[in-house]
Amino acid sequence: MATDSSLLNSELELQQQEELYQQLLLQTMGNKQTENPESKVIRPQPGMCVKTVSEPDKQKVFVNICQSNSVPHPPELSREELLELLQSEDPSGYRVPMTLGEPHTEVDNSSQGCTAYDVVINQDFFQRCQEDPLFQQFFILVSVEGLENKYNLELSRDWKVLKNRKFLGSVSEQNIRTKSRPVIQELQPQGSSAAVAKKPEFTLLVEPPAGDPEYLIAEIKLPGVPSSRSLVLDVGEDRLVLTARPSLFHLDIFHPFLVDQVNSMAQYNKSTEILTVTMPVVSS
Prior knowledge:
- The chain is built from 4 helices and 16 strands.
- The protein is globular, with a radius of gyration of 20 Å.
- The protein has helices spanning 11-28, 79-86, 123-131, 133-151; strands spanning 39-42, 45-53, 60-68, 99-100, 104-107, 113-122, 160-161, 174-177, 185-187, 202-207, 215-221, 231-235, 239-244, 249-254, 265-269, 274-280.
- By secondary structure, the protein is α+β, with helices and mostly antiparallel strands.
- Strands 2, 3, 4, 5, 6 and 7 form a 6-stranded mixed β-sheet that branches. Strands 9-10-11-16-15 form a 5-stranded antiparallel β-sheet.
- The protein folds into 2 domains: 39-177, no CATH class; 202-280, Immunoglobulin-like, CATH 2.60.40.
- The longest helix has 19 residues, at 133-151.
- Belongs to the PIH1 family.
- It comes from Scophthalmus maximus (Turbot).
- Residues 32-182 form the PIH1 N-terminal domain.
- This is PIH1 domain-containing protein 1.
- InterPro entries: PIH1/Kintoun_subfamily, PIH1_N, PIH1D1/2/3_CS-like.
């Protein structure tokens, strides 16, 4: 993504970005390792196909929920614990490992164009969702919210699981991590008191704390934002742009690493009012 200097508000902000860049370098480049992030290409198996529509234009959207044992199993959770979780103030505290594929254009049974997304989860967890409708509805909701956050969508909650179709289109390969998520190390932001009006406070994190960086993580404080549907997020190769509608906050920062835009993920925690953006760092 080309740098647009007109988007920077002042020489002070440029200085802040340079300080942050130097701090990131000190934290992540001190102990270089030759080992690359462990990942592999998988071809998931079809599972079930969920039909919904985008809002407000009512365009057809299909979510292909696929399965693979290469995706980690989420923490064990009983039906009673799931019910308790759904009634809690912060159900986002339970994470389901998944991969969210890029949108691809398909044709439905009516020969009409539509958009499909592929979501891959652990095969055993998929079977649990097949056996228990409560788990199935819970995961469909998690998938829909994940797609909304990653691709700035609004999808209807009035979805339908297709009975005679497990997948729309053709199954494509996906690249996934094969090692567990490492511990992150916090980098303190510089000059937050000098932030311009309506620019939210944010912190950049890198993981792992030693060796080549695998992830760059932005944690952005958004007090007063009611839900992720109010957010418009654009992750570039070297830049992150966030707008909270209607114009509550605006953040436009450049970061020092080349990141994978497609596999970046975002999650908004309504309880803490923090948006977490996880961006895989592309190995040089």
